[in-house]
Each structure stands twice: as C-alpha cells, then as structure tokens.
C-alpha cells in the first residue's frame, strides 16, 4: 500500500536530476504530488522527454533549469525561477556530483577545483539562495546527498572524499542556524548504488580483470558493503521522503547512512 507523506502541492528543486539517483529522487517526490524543478546535464531533447514524462506520469508540474553547478549566479537564478513560477520553495535536494580518481600527487588541479565546486560549493550556493524563501514561509527542507565517503575515505578519491566530508559539515552548520525557523537540513550517505554509470564500470572492470561481472560486483565494487548488495534508488527515495515530510521534522543536522553496513566497520 502506498504511503502518503503529505507533500501534495509542494515544490522541490533537485540538482543533478536528469538521470541516475537525482532523477529517481525527483520522480519519487513527484509521485507524492510535489512539483519539481529538474536540473542537470544531457541532450536537450532527452531532457525534455524526461521532463514531460514525469509531469504526465504523476500529474504535477515539472520544469527544467539548466543552471551550471559551477556558477553561483546561475544557481541563484534557478532558485529564483522556482519561486517565481510556483510562488514557494519547500524542498531543496543538493544531489549534483562528479568524480575523478587519481593519487594526490597526480591529481589534476582542474579536476580538484571542479569536484569541489560541483560536489560541495554548489550546495552552499543553492542553500544560500533557498533559505531566505524558506524563512519567509516558516518551513523548508534541505537534503544534501553525501556519500559513505562523507564518513570514511578510500584511496585515490581525495577531492570527492574531501567534498563529501565538507557536505556533512555544511549540513550541520545550516541545521543549527535555521533550527528554530521551521527548516531542517540533513544529509543522506549512500553506499554504492547500481546506476547506469556503475553498471558501465562493472562491465569495464570485468573485462580489465578477466573475471565475471558477478565477481566484480561482490569482490571489487561491493567489497566494503557487508550485505554485498547494491543500495537501490527506491531505498534512497524512502529515506528522502521521510526527511522532507513532517515525519522528519525532528531530524536535523544528521547524516543518514544507507550503505549496507559499510560505515559500521
């Protein structure tokens, strides 16, 4: 039986939502009657199909804003556009992210700057623009999609790990600042999720290592996850819906792990 989280008619921005985890989170909120502002990269015809399909499927309004997450002015414009179109902004989900893997002494400076800009600084700029609207409303929900790498490290991911640790610090600070104004700020820390990007990595790893895709999943990618199971987008969506609903009103400044036990070790 479907659960009604009481979100009908609310408005949400989800960054990095044209595909993968962000799209799944936006779709889950749309299914609850939330009007959505999508954001992300992709071919424009494909993005338009995604937007139109979500709107038709759930009977909500779905807009797209192409803000570049490395540009604070464009991020602020996205938030202003949402308010101008819908008259409110109830939910901000900071999900946009990129990755690059290399040793610290070989890590390209431009990749470091890009990852910090998109994975960390964009969340600051979006929250900065959204919080005055939420204060005026007397209610708001900010959810930052961090990672298990916001709590533990892995080699060769210095920028990503630094950014995700930073997201948790930003989450706590925002939560304390707005705690008495009806606004909450929390983070979700997923383990490995089987997105199309990860599926491609599985095939590549299997070929490179000369082992089966099943072995890659269990012994390479999921080596750190005790369940040896991928986190599903539905599981992340369930956590998100709790946090953005009134049920999650007392969750504030917290990092919710959805990682199959990875960070319990």
From TrEMBL:
Pfam families the UniProt entry points to:
adh_short (PF00106)
Q: Which Gene3D superfamilies match?
A: NAD(P)-binding Rossmann-like Domain
InterPro entries listed in its UniProt record: 3-OHbutyrate_DH, NAD(P)-bd_dom_sf, Sc_DH/Rdtase_CS, SDR, SDR_fam
Annotated GO biological processes are:
monocarboxylic acid metabolic process
Q: What is its EC number?
A: 1.1.1.175
Extract one GO molecular function annotation from the record. 3-hydroxybutyrate dehydrogenase activity
Query: What family does the Swiss-Prot or TrEMBL record give for this protein?
Result: Belongs to the short-chain dehydrogenases/reductases (SDR) family.
What is this protein called in UniProt? D-xylose 1-dehydrogenase
Species assigned in the record: Caulobacter sp. 602-2
């Amino acid at each position: 039986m479907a659960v009604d989280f009481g979100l009908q008619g609310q408005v949400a921005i989800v960054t990095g939502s044209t595909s993968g985890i962000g799209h799944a989170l936006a779709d889950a909120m749309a299914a609850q009657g939330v009007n959505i502002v999508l954001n992300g990269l992709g071919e424009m015809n494909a993005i338009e199909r995604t937007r139109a399909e979500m709107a038709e499927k759930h009977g909500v309004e779905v807009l797209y804003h192409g803000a570049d997450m490395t540009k604070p002015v464009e991020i602020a414009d996205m938030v202003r556009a949402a308010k101008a179109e819908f008259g409110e902004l109830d939910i901000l989900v900071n999900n946009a992210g990129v990755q690059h893997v290399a040793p610290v002494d070989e890590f390209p400076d431009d990749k470091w700057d890009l990852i910090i800009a998109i994975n960390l600084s964009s969340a600051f700029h979006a929250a900065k623009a959204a919080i005055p609207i939420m204060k005026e409303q007397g209610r708001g929900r900010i959810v930052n999609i961090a990672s298990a790498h916001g709590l533990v490290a892995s080699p060769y991911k210095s920028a990503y790990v630094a950014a995700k640790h930073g997201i948790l610090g930003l989450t706590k600070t925002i939560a304390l600042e707005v705690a008495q104004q009806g606004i909450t700020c929390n983070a979700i820390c997923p383990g490995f999720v089987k997105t199309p990007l990860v599926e491609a990595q599985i095939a590549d790893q299997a070929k490179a290592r000369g082992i089966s895709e099943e072995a890659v999943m269990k012994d390479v990618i999921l080596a750190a996850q005790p369940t040896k199971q991928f986190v599903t987008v539905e599981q992340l969506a369930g956590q998100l819906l709790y946090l953005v609903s009134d049920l999650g009103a007392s969750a504030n400044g917290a990092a919710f792990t959805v990682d199959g036990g990875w960070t319990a070790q």
